[in-house]
Specification:
The protein has two helices and no strands. By secondary structure, it is mainly alpha-helical. The protein has one domain. The protein is elongated, with a radius of gyration of 23 Å.
């Protein structure tokens, strides 16, 4: 019987780590107010801000070409 209890304990560890991660992410979301960004999203956004602007310019250039304005 003791062995079964030990196995349950090991099975719970990944589950608890997952729950902890979810709670941390929820906390991040709450701290951001009503927006649903997590801190990882924000780091990613900061990193890709320049890339995003560049792609937006490319996209508008492509749209101009498709509409015959370019």
């Amino acid at each position: 019987m003791q062995e079964i209890n030990n196995n349950k304990k090991y099975l719970l560890i990944p589950f608890l780590e997952l729950k902890q991660k979810e709670l941390i992410e929820k906390k991040d979301k709450i701290e951001m107010g009503k927006s649903t960004f997590t801190s990882m999203d924000i780091i990613q956004m900061e990193y890709t801000k320049g890339e995003y602007k560049r792609r937006l310019q490319q996209l508008s250039a492509v749209e101009d070409m498709m509409q015959g304005n370019g």
